[in-house]
Structure formats: C-alpha cells, structure tokens
Amino acid sequence: MKLNRVTIDNFRNIGHAEYNLEDINIFQGPNRQGKTNTILAIYWAITDFLMDGSSDYASFKPLDDTKKKVSVELEFDTFKFKKEFYEKWTKTRGSEEETMTGHNTDYYIDDIKTKVTDAKKELMQKFGVDGKTDIAKFDLLRAVMDPYYLAKNDWKVTRQFIIELVGDVENAAVINENPELEPVANRLAQDWYDTDKSKKFYKQQIKNSNEDITRLEGQIEGLQMVKDVSSEDLQAAQAEIENIDTAITNTKVGKKDTSISDALQKELTELQQQALDMETAERTKHNAQNASVREERAIIQNKIAAAQRAKDEARNETIKVENELADIDMQTNRTTLEIADKEKRIERLRTEYIATKNQAIQTEEVACPNCGHILNQEAIEAEKQRHNQRLEQLAADGKTATLELQNLQFKLKELQERSREIELKQAPARAELNRANENLQACENYYRAISERPYVVSIELSNLKSAVNAKQAELQNQRLIESQDTSMHDTIARLQAQKELPQQTLNQHHAFTANQQQIGKIKEQITAEQKNLVTCEQAVALVERFIQLKLQAFQARIESVFGTKVHFTLIENNIKEGSWNEVCYPSVCDKETPFLNGSGSEQIIAGIYIAECIKKKLGIEDLPFIFDECDKLDTQSLKALETNAQIITTKVNDVQHKKLTLVAKKGR
After folding, report:
1. What's the pTM value of the predicted model, to 2 decimals?
2. SS3 of residue 80 by DSSP
3. What range does the domain containing 358 cover?
4. Residue 129 in contact with residue 107, Cβ under 8 Å?
5. What does DSSP assign to residue 254?
6. Which of 73, 150, 273, 378 is the most core-located residue (most Cβ within 10 A)?
7. Which of 516, 503, 524 is nearest to 228 (CA)?
8. d(CA 668, CA 645)
9. In this structure, are residues 550 and 241 in contact, taking their beta carbons and an 8 Å threshold?
10. How far separated are the first and last CA of the chain, in Å rounded?
C-alpha cells in the first residue's frame, strides 16, 4: 500500500502544506523548519501516537491560535483518510462566555465522517493488521511501519508477541526430552508453568529452612551452656556419696525408735529432689529463653540492616526527585528569561523596522543646471537599495525571532508539565522515606528492648526451698526428742552436709546428659532441614535449566521466521547476583550487537528487516516505513534497504535547501 498525497493544516508550526509522495520521500532542509513535524503528522494520523509512543495531542495545536483545527489528510492508492483534532468550547448555561471543556477527534474515510471506534476498526482492516495478533498491548501497525518500535517496546510484551508469532514450545515436551527436570515437573505443572512462581516457592522453602536452622542452632547453643563434669570428678562424687551413706547407716545402728524422724527424712529427701528438679528445669528453660533472645536479636539485626538499606534507597530516590525538580525549575527560569529577552528583541526589531520604513532618503537630488538631468541618480538608487535591504533584513530577523519565541514558549510548556509530573513523585518519595525512617526506628527500639535476663528463682521454687528448710528444722527437733545422745544426730547431720557438694556434681552430670539427648534430636532436625535446603536449591537450578532449554528450543522457532541475520537475545547473565535474567531484544543485522547499542544506520536497517519478516509471516502487505533522521544512513545503505515498501523520512540539509523541501524519488 502506498501513500500518494498528504495535506496538513495547523499541525504545530505547519500552517498549511501539501505533498505528492513517491517510493522514497525525504523531507530535507535546515533545522526547525518542520521536517519532523511533517512525518509526525503522518505517523499520528495513521497510528494515533507520537513516534515516542506518547499521546500528547495538545502539543499538536499551533501556538499562535490553539482554537484552530488540526487536520491531516492522507490519500492512499486504495482509499482516502482524514483526521481532525480540535478544542471543544461550550457556553455555560445563562452566560455567553465559552469555556474549553475538552478536545474532539473526527475521522473521515473516503470523505465520510465515521465514528471513532468504527473508523479505527476499518483502518486496521484496510492496513491488513486487524485480527493478526491477540496481544493487546502490542501495536502491530506500528511494528510494521516504525523500524524502532519492536526493539524499544516493553520486552515482556515483545516476547509475548514473538511467542505468538513463531509458536510456543510445549512445556511437557521440554520435560519429557530432559529427564533431569523430573524433580520439578509436578511443581511446574501445579504453577501452570509460571517459572517465576515456581522459583518463588522454592526460594521461600530455602528461606524457611535457613531460618529454622538458625533457630535450632540457637537452641543447641543454649543447651551447650551446661557443661559436663570430668569422669574423675564424677567417679569421686559417686564414691564419696556411697561412703557417706555407709557412714550414716553405721551411725544409726543401735539407736531407738526413729520411725517419725525416718518419715520426716523421707519427706525431706523428696522435697530436696523436687527442689533440685525444679531448679534444673528452670535453669534449662532460662538458658533456652536466652538462646531464643540471641536468635531474635540476630533476626532483628538483619531487619535493621534491611530497613537501613530501604531508608538509603528512599533517601536516594527523594534526593533524585528533588534534584530533578530543581533542575527543571532552573531550566524553567532560564527559559522564562530567554522568552522575555526574545520578546524585547522582537519589540526592538519592530520599532527599528517602523523607524527605518518611515525614514526619508537622505541623499538630495543634484540636477544639471542646463538640461535638468539628475546627476547623482545612481547614489540615490544605491541608498534606496540599502534602505530596502535593511527593511528586508529586519523583517527576516523578526520572523526568526518570532519562531524562536514560539519554540521557547513550547519548551516552557513542556518544562512546566514535566515539573508537575515530578512534583507528583515528590510527596510519595518523601512519604516512603518517612515510612523507612519509622520502620528503622521501630526495629532499633525493639532491638534495644530485648536482652538476655539473669536467672531469677521462681516463687514456686522459693516456696519449695522454704519448705525444705522448714522440714529440715522439723527433722532436727524430732531427732532431739528421739535420742538422749545427741552426738549421733550431730554426726548424721554433719555427714548429710558433706553430701551436698558431691550431689551437685551428680546433678550437673544428669543435666548435661539430658541436654545432650535433646541436642541429638535437634541435630536430626537440622540435618533434615539441610537436606531440604539442598533439594530446594537444586530445584531452583532445575527451574532455571527448564527456562534455558525452553528458550533454546524457542530460539530455533525464532530463526524459522527471522533467519540468522538478526539474533534475538532471550537470556543474559546477571553478574551481580551470579545468575541470569530473562529478556527479549534483537540485535542489529549480521552482528551480536544489541539493537539499542547499534549505530543509527544499523538500527534503521535492522528495524526494517525485522518488520519485513513480521509482514511475511503474517501476510501483511507493504505499508510505508516512517522514521526520522535518515541522514544516519549513507546513500549506499539507503539503497541497500531490504524492502519494497514506501519510505517516508527526514534529513537535515541546510546546504542544498534553505527551507523545507520534499525530495521524492520513484523506485530505488
């Protein structure tokens, strides 16, 4: 399909322009003459977008009178299409004053006004792209007309389109052909082959296992605080207790009825054992609690570090936004000053033009006294010529200054809009910084609030020890009553006192033995968590392997459509994290250089080649290629473009052309 004629009215700095187009069409001339605006008008009329993908329709309006109707009419070889954009002015009820309430866009196909939705649908059908893709965010029309669109589009959307274009690789086939992926097959199927979701699942399992291992190791650390006695000390304590018990038995031989004191002794022994067991349990619990506190403090330290990083990031973002706003303010002030200077210059030029125009010829005529012939006619004519040239120069300078003023006013409007956009980011950035500060402060306060506590005897244990003391006093009184010879009771009491130290040794050994049994059970749990950790880490690697294998198979499908001239990169290394990322971007032709890193000519050549491959695959007829700055292409490269489609582009040429000129050529 070929665009034969274009008519533009009131589009930015273009008041009115008409052009007849050929196969190759290059709008040439100096800067700021409307080259880019001309092809931008065509691009907007066809695609509904600017070439950068934005929709700033208000910028189309002429600066001298925004009420003027913007109009672009395109005559193709099979139909005619016109698009109009204008302000909507409404009178307020009860008032004659009009206010702007919005904008209207009208479509005319073959001179028939058509509803917007119907017009867009019909245009897509006429251009042959209707129903050719189901990817809502992918603009197929721009992809086959704009050499830069596909490479500069969101890579995720581009990848969706490429998959749709070349055909996806079946997930089950990848797993069946690679048995090593079997351990993650069920997980992938359960997640509907959403690899990000599967990796997130396994990474959460890894995180949970690491946290459990840290917690269990903290418990072991607390249990290990109870140390065992040496074998020599243990044997000595056992022997000493045995000897003391024998001595007590021998001392008791021959004494009279001691049934009451024996019963009291039994009760005392039971109370002492209860007190010992309770104290051992309390100390074990206390040690475990302190271990938990240490573990929690370690976790809080990690949270503090994360909160500090979040605060730093929020602070950096706030500074960035404020710096951007300051820079925009500086540019706005500078542009405002430039506008004022330009307005003063225009006023000076206008004043000088009026004064010069009203200025009389200074050279007086000198006539011949004999014949009346003007003797200095040439001097007078020369002065008139200088006078007229000065007027022309002042008029030209005035037009140039006026155009520069319009550009500055347009630039000021863009800066003000940009300033409003950045101001919208400022409050969220500051709010995020405040949240980060509050979160960090909360973490630090909580960290200071938790600490290890010294062991304090419980009320129950204190009462039990008091009961032991009372029972000991009762036993001593009973023994005084039962025996006339108090020396035996004194001896037994002395022997019982001697048992306390070796008994403590035995109690410490028993506590150590119980703790070691508990440590053994905890280590089994750690081993299980470590095994799960390794399994999940291997699973993450297998999911990434699945992605690599699928993308490799997908690469072969891509080559079936795009050949080997252009290479699509689907994964790239992430050196910082020691892994890789999924991407989707093309190279320039016959090189591994990424499209966006290529030269201007390489990007244009590759973009047209990619569009041609898409058109061939989907059966779309040739549509015009529209792009700016073809001076990036030398003459040889322009001739070598692999397309039969119409070319519409621009080129800066202030040597051969002093104003905007269409250089049109038939054929290649």
Report:
1. 0.53
2. strand
3. 287-453
4. no
5. T
6. 150
7. 516
8. 10
9. no
10. 16
Question: Is 252 a member of any domain?
Answer: no
Within a domain: 164: no
Adjacent-strand bridge partners of 650: 27
Q: Among 646, 653, 657, 456, which Cα is nearest to 3's?
A: 646
Residues 604, 610, 615: CA angle, nearest 5 degrees: 125
Q: Which residues pair with 109 in a beta bridge?
A: 81, 112
Max CA distance (Å), the chain: 183
For 526-582, the pLDDT digits (tens) are: 999 999 999 999 999 999 889 888 888 888 888 889 998 998 888 776 555 555 677
CA angle 615, 617, 619 (to 5 degrees): 60
Q: Kindly provide the residue ranges of all beta strands, DSSP E only, lying in 516-608, ordered along the sequence.
A: 568-574, 579-586
C-alpha 523, offset from chain centre = 41
Rg (CA), the chain: 46
Considering only 38-42, 112-116, 588-592, which range has the smallest mean pLDDT? 588-592
Which has the closest alpha carbon to 34: 407, 416, 413, 401? 407
Which pair of structure tokens corresponds to residue 95?
A: 């008032």
Task: Judge whether residue 483 has pLDDT over 70.
Answer: no
Cβ–Cβ < 8 Å for 157, 139: no
Query: Could you give the angle at the alpha carbon of 210 between the alpha carbons of 205 and 215, nearest 5°?
Result: 125
Half-sphere exposure of 634 toward its Cβ, with a 13 Å CA cutoff?
Answer: 2
Report the domain count for the chain: 2
CA gap 377, 263 in Å, rounded: 154
Residue 261 included in any domain: no
Structure tokens at 507: 């109690």
Among 402, 431, 453, the domain boundary falls at 453
Do 41 and 14 touch, CB atoms closer than 8 A? yes
Cβ burial of 561 (10 Å; 0-12, 13-18, 19+) is middle
Residue 604, in any domain of the structure: no
Separation between Cα atoms, residue 638 and residue 601, nearest integer Å = 9
CATH of the domain at 124: 3.40.50.300
Task: Give the contacts of 166 (CB within 8 A, at least 6 positions apart).
Answer: 554, 557, 558, 560, 561, 617
Distance CA 269, CA 496 (A): 11
Cα 33 off chain centre by: 39
Residue 17 sits at φ, ψ, to 5 deg, of -150, 140
Residue 177 near residue 160 (C-beta atoms within 8 A) = no
